[in-house]
Amino acid sequence: MSTGQSLLTIAAFMFLSTLLVNFYRLAASNGDVIAGGQDGIAETTIAISYIEIANGLAFDTVTDTSDIAINNPNSLTPPDQLGHGFSEDSLHKFNDFDDFKGYSEEKEMLGSGRRYKTKFDVYYVDPNNVNNKSSVRTFVKRMDLNVWRIFPPPDKDSGLDTMKTFTTMGYFHFD
Amino acid sequence: MAVILDIIFSLVFGGALLVIVLTANDIANENYSLYNGDVVVQEMLVSTAELVEGELRNMGFGVPEKKQTVLEADTGRIKYLTDLDRNGTIDTITYYVGDTTELLQTQNELDRYLRRKVNAGMTAKVGVVTQWRLRYITASGEVLPTPVELDRLTEIHIVELTMEVQNPYAQLRRTGEVEDGQRGALYSSSFWQQTRLASQNLRR
């Protein structure tokens, strides 16, 4: 085999190697995208489950313990005191919507072994625009939820990210 | 001599090239089947989940405050009350899974029908699942043993539903690839889990 032929063979194999590396990278990335779909389903269902629980709670500690209609938002919990009390240390002990403030919980999807973490934040918002955080008490609260997979930890290159969503709750009272 | 060596090297390189291409082709085919199966399964799961989550969301709707909402509670079966048509008449909804023998025509030996029944009407098949597991949790966080005893049905505060869907047809594996305890085919699978309140108005 002459030098020219050898060089040509080496070049051909380098070309083939590049093709193969790209092929396997593409195959792996397709798998990540589809696995990401499963994570998206799981994260969405987890977020909806928490929202369901939160929506079943009272609007505020004051409205949970009293059956009298509140007409003045200043009767509600001050913004800097939102959050769960000392004795409300688990989800099942929460009694009002803002008990979720600062709370975080891990959940395992039964059967798949994957674990997800959710972090919550709750604050008052402007009733006319729920995207505007209010520094004063209003009759509308917003809960932000961030859900992400913690086990198995996602690869940095997988493109998996935190799922962010929110829900709002307005105060109402039946006379 | 040099010519013979050239031929031998060419055969070796050509053979290696052929093996690489065939392996890559195998992997491409396998991945295509698996990814396609994953997508189909996720779509099947979402379509069933949309129906179930929409209905369970309204569990207890229109039911008087003191009346029991859940009438039957077992791992694979739930019967509850809701005003389905919002006409003031309380309806009884039953969800339950059938037996795996009903779907013997599919390759997957675990799939079964999910059924829904409204009042005394006909039972409808609303999906195919491989797992449908219900858990019942009290307001204090206690998981009730199933089937839940009649006198404890009123304690149900949260209903947790786990659902798994696998594709009915899968990629068969070669006998040598299957180890003890493994299934003879690769099935795509997708999980869904959600908690629902037995009644929306407990604290409002």
Descriptive overview:
The complex is a heterodimer of chains A (175) and B (204). Chain A is elongated and about 95 Å long. Chain A has one domain. Chain A has helices at 3-55, 61-65, and strands spanning 104-108, 115-126, 129-133, 140-151, 163-170. Chain A starts with a helix and ends in a 5-residue tail after the last strand. In chain A, strand 1 and strand 2 form a beta hairpin. Chain A is an alpha+beta fold. In chain A, 22% of the residues are buried. In chain A, strands 1, 2, 3, 4 and 5 form a five-stranded antiparallel sheet that branches. Chain B is of the alpha+beta class and 204 residues long. Chain B has one domain. Chain B has one helix spanning 2-56, and strands at 70-73, 77-82, 91-97, 112-118, 123-129, 131-138, 143-144, 156-166, 171-172, 185-186, 189-197. In chain B, the strands form three sheets. Chain B has a five-stranded antiparallel sheet with strand order 1-2-3-4-5, covered by helices on one side. The N and C termini of chain B lie far apart (94 Å). The mean pLDDT of chain B is 86. Classes of the chains: A alpha+beta (175), B alpha+beta (204).
Short description:
The complex is a heterodimer of chains A (175) and B (204). Chain A has 175 residues and is an alpha+beta fold.
What Rg of chain A do the Cα atoms give? 26 Å
Approximate strand percentage of chain A: 15-25%
SSE run of chain A: HHEEEEE
- Largest chain-chain contact? A-B, 37 and 45 residues
Count the strands of chain A? Answer: 5
Name the structural class of chain B.
alpha+beta
* Structural classification of chain A: alpha+beta
Low-confidence stretches of chain B: none
Instruction: Describe the largest sheet of chain A.
Output: 5 strands, antiparallel
User: Given the structure, what is the number of helices of chain B?
Assistant: 1
What is the average of the pLDDT values of chain A?
88
Question: Which ranges of chain A are low-confidence, i.e. pLDDT below 50, for 5 or more consecutive residues?
Answer: none
Order of helices and strands of chain B: HEEEEEEEEEEE
The number of helices of chain A is 2
Residues in helices of chain B, as a percent range: 25-40%
> Portion of residues in helices of chain A?
25-40%
Radius of gyration of chain B (Å) = 26 Å
C-alpha end-to-end distance of chain A:
97 Å
What is the rounded distance between the termini of chain B? 94 Å
Shape of chain A: elongated
The biggest beta sheet of chain B reads:
5 strands, antiparallel
